[in-house]
Write a structure and sequence with these properties.
With 373 residues, this protein is of the alpha/beta class. The chain contains 16 helices and 14 strands. It folds into two domains: 159 residues, DHBP synthase; 165 residues, Rossmann fold (3-Layer(aba) Sandwich), CATH 3.40.50. The strands form two sheets. It has a seven-stranded mixed sheet, sandwiched between helices. A seven-stranded mixed sheet has the order 8-9-10-12-11-13-14, with helices on both faces. The longest helix has 14 residues. It starts with a helix and ends in a 5-residue tail after the last helix. 39% of the residues are buried.
């Protein structure tokens, strides 16, 4: 008789399932264990930490708790660091952890030690879960872990993104006529980043034997749906679809990577900081994020599964162009995707140009932007 483990193996590997479960538990605010041989790290999202559970976790290894802090956050705490570090917590102190992880005016208050492989795995798990990448952790022996705690191997966490790229697959498709593009098909993929569905919108009838116009558009709830004036995302989204419909068609990949891959909660935190005068990238650094956490290798795989091998990219972001080339697609041209300039987004756009190297020409934006209603 076939056992359950054999059947589950038809779907994915046990290691991939372990990371899936660890991401879900971590997002739910419960501790998970990251393992490597005889060593393990019990980790908890800083947002979920309070004094009661900090004291409870400390009982696993009295006086050995630590906060894992990414390099970007360490720079905001006053250190010139390019690598993550750890700060010891000999006494459980949830308020101190919150201060070091999130408070604007915090400064480092103890020596910072280098991270090990398990610590790096904890930061990667937080990023996979779209959470603030500062993690409260307790080192323990793997043998001491209780049976009910969800655990994942550190190497499995490290390999997870690449595994998801290979596993991405089409799960549904249907025609969906749009305001500016009556002949449009939505193709839904399962996989990629964050255990979310991704969508390819095929506009018109592009000839896949020739270079296809494409745009990789990261989801922006505030701009795409509500017309936020703080960015140009909604204009870019609708403008590129309209241009595709008016020409030879194309494909818009709508990718669930809100807030440059930081997640919607952290995007709102960053917006709050921006309202207090912080630049968009400085605001992200306060939260522990680098310039951009997004990955586009799974987007290239979506295109390949649709039969696309050569593209004309509609983007202002050189990282997207480089990612497609690195993934093996032929990029024959890149064209700009401009929205409208507003009083609220001009600093944001200038920051993308000056700090992240985006191809943004304000004069060209004025000439090409859609007219305000």
């Amino acid at each position: 008789m076939t056992n359950v483990s054999d059947v589950l193996g038809l779907f994915d590997t046990a290691n991939e399932r372990a990371v899936d479960r660890a991401i879900a538990e971590f997002r739910a605010g419960r501790p998970v264990a990251i393992t490597e041989g005889e060593n393990a790290l019990v980790v908890l999202l800083v947002d979920a930490l309070n004094q009661r559970n900090a004291e409870g976790l400390d009982r696993l290894a009295p006086g050995r708790a630590r906060l894992i802090i990414p390099a970007a956050r360490l720079r905001r705490l006053g250190l010139d660091r390019q690598q993550a570090g750890i700060v010891s917590f000999p006494v459980p102190d949830a308020a101190r952890a919150e201060t070091l992880a999130l408070k604007i005016d915090a400064r480092i208050d103890a020596p910072v030690a280098p991270v090990n492989t398990l610590d790096e795995g904890a930061i990667e798990l937080a990023r996979l879960a779209l959470l603030t990448p500062a993690v409260y952790a307790i080192p323990v022996a793997t043998a001491s872990l209780a049976g009910e705690i969800v655990r994942a191997g550190v190497q499995d966490i490290t390999d997870y993104r690449a595994a998801q790229v290979k596993a991405i697959q089409i799960v549904g498709r249907a025609p969906v006529p749009l305001e500016f593009a009556a002949e449009t098909e939505f193709v839904v993929f399962r996989g990629g980043e964050g255990l979310k569905d991704q969508v390819a919108i095929i506009v018109g009838k592009p000839d896949f034997s020739k270079p296809v116009a494409i745009r990789m558009h990261s989801a922006c709830l505030t701009g795409d749906l509500f017309g936020s004036l703080k960015c140009d995302c909604g204009d870019q989204l609708r403008g590129t679809v309209q241009k595709m419909a008016q020409s030879d068609g194309g494909i818009l990949l709508y990718l669930d990577q809100e807030g440059r891959g930081n997640g919607i909660a952290n995007k709102m935190r960053a917006y709050k900081l921006q309202s207090q005068g912080w630049d968009t990238y400085d605001a992200d650094e306060v939260l522990g994020f680098g310039l951009d956490q997004r990955r586009f290798d799974f987007a290239a795989e979506m295109l390949r599964k649709l039969g696309v091998t050569s593209v004309r990219v509609m983007t202002n972001n050189p990282e997207k162009i480089g990612a497609l080339k690195a993934s093996g697609l032929e990029v024959v041209a890149d064209n700009r995707a401009y929205g409208r300039q507003t009083a609220e987004n001009v600093r944001y756009l200038a920051s993308k140009r000056d700090r992240a190297g985006h191809f943004i020409d304000f004069d060209a934006m004025v000439a090409h932007a859609p007219q305000a209603d």
